[in-house]
Amino acid sequence: MSDQAELGADAEIVERGAAEVREPSAKYLARSGYKQTEVGLIPSDWTVSPLGGYVTLTSGASPSLFKFGTGNLPYYKVEQLSNSGKYLNHQSTPYLFQTGPTVSARSVVFAKRGAAIALNKVRIVNEASFMDTNLMALSPAPCLDCEYLYYALGYIGLWRFADTTSVPQINNKHIKPLPFVLPPFDEQRAIATALSDVDALIAGLERLIAKKRDIKQAAMQQLLTGQTRLQGFSGEWHQGIFGDVVIALDAGVSVNSTDAEPALDTPCVLKTSALVGGKFLPNEAKVIEVRDVGRARTSAKGDTILVSRMNTPMLVGEIAYVAQDFDSLFLPDRVWMARFNISKKVDVRWMAFVLSSQPYRDLLRDVATGTSGSMKNISKNALRSLPIRFPSPKEQTAIATVLSDMDAELCALEARLTKTRAIKQGMMQELLTGRTRLV
């Protein structure tokens, strides 16, 4: 089965389950028999008790107590939580030891100290293992399913209970008395299975998106350099510079702005962060203060390219293609807007792909001037002087169409991923509170 077909089958299961959560059918129990508790209304056959009664708590120990390099017992640090998925095992870490204290398989671990608490990283260990002093493990009692515990902790958000000192911490005093909602065991398993199905779809979408991005990068490398030619095209490309086809490089001015929510036709100024990987994000804007509206001069126009001309060393030279006019969206002084000479018959989308490719990203950073540790600037002359190899206008358009189709597919997959993540959040809210119940 292909990636797309497999994801489609998974998505159908998840969508059907999500629809039933939104509109309970006969598969779900009726909303009756609820009781009021300290955490709100829950089903009458669910219980609320301190979490400490359901788990054994274990804090990590210093790496100095372990001899690494031999054995098969995994040892985890916060970095392993950040770089892994839902489950941890000996393949998730480079730190292995022979003997020492362990927590049992199917324990749940999370960060207990430092800024990592706010990331709400919760994981399940799939084998006996241990962890350093910045982590804590909860080993569930037989009445508590570890998968349900995993999702419940992620929904609760342990960071909300941490000490807000200079170094945030979660300790036994926070975990043991924490009111914890416990459904019957079979229902715990059903809830965990439903949420695991959504996780599987999310992971599949993430893998597919990563694969499609790699394919697009390879296509850009081949098509934009002429290493691979589309069917029906031949002949030499001619050498030129960016300035050969540019009629003007415009920039805005510095204006005062507010964080108010932009309304339709409200004069706004674009944030430089709106140039992200060749995408133009018109919603990433701030409202111009009334006293400065008259000073705003350069609005974003269709079939142009924006270049982040003044930015940090890593962000200078970011590119975005503007497909349509935005008369009320003005440019800041840190962005060039390149307008093109239509008589030169250049495909502006193709040019945007060229400038956003990795070789040109590197080149734009190289031509930017300024000290390495602060702001960099790309001058008009440096931008106009960029060397460009031009295929025929028809081949430019053909290449841009292929890459735009890939972009459209990626955008559709990313939108689907966003929707699926939202579905998961809705399902967690419904299922982990008992508002909707699974048979």
Overall residue-averaged pLDDT value: 89
Radius of gyration: 28 Å
Supply the number of helical segments. 9
Largest sheet: 5 strands, mixed
Helix proportion:
25-40%
Distance N to C terminus: 31 Å
| Range of strand content | 15-25%
Task: Give the helix/strand class.
Answer: alpha+beta
Describe the strand arrangement of the main beta sheet, using strand numbers. Answer: 4-11-8-9-6
Name the poorly predicted regions.
20-30
The 3D shape can be described as elongated
The total count of strands amounts to 27
Characterization of this structure:
This protein is of the alpha+beta class and 439 residues long. 32% of the residues lie in helices and 23% in strands. The protein is built from nine helices and 27 strands. The strands form nine sheets. The protein has a five-stranded mixed beta sheet with strand order 4-11-8-9-6. It has a five-stranded mixed beta sheet with strand order 15-19-16-24-20, with no helix packed on it. Strands 14-25-21-23 form a four-stranded antiparallel beta sheet, with helices on one face. A hairpin with a 2-residue loop joins strand 1 and strand 2. Helix 1 packs across helix 5 and helix 6 crosses helix 9. The chain is elongated and about 75 Å long. It starts with a helix and ends in an 8-residue tail after the last helix. 33% of the residues are buried.
